[in-house]
Amino acid sequence: MKKQLKSRKLLANNIKYYRLKRGLSQEEHAEFLGTTPVYLSSLENAKRNIRLDYIEHIANTLEVNIKDLFIEREIVEKKKRPRRKKIK
Hints:
The protein is built from 4 helices and no strands.
């Protein structure tokens, strides 16, 4: 069971790492994925299981190889980007 949690945390950290590297907010990345920022946040905080085909979709939106999402790296600290302004 612990390995599963470790894998989920590793994936979550890398999703956040590559999202920040691309300069995307959670809202922007969620829009690319066709989902909500709340769902993306739950993935980035390792609170949800995720299907393999969705991992591939995430890798594609981040323009990385799927294997890059499973590389061990330092934990990404919680960095908040300002929310983008809504156009009225």
